[in-house]
Amino acid sequence: MSDTYDQDRKEAADWAREMLASDALILDTETSGLDDTAEIVQIAIIDMHGNTLLDALIKPVNGIPRSASRIHGITDETVAEAPSFADVWPSICDVIRDKTVIIYNADYDTRLLAQSARAHGITLLRVDYVTYKCAMLPYSAWVGSWNDYHGNYRWQRLPAGDHSALGDCLATLNVLQKMAAQEPA
Question: What is the homologous superfamily of the domain 2-180 according to CATH?
Answer without folding.
Answer: Ribonuclease H-like superfamily/Ribonuclease H (3.30.420.10)
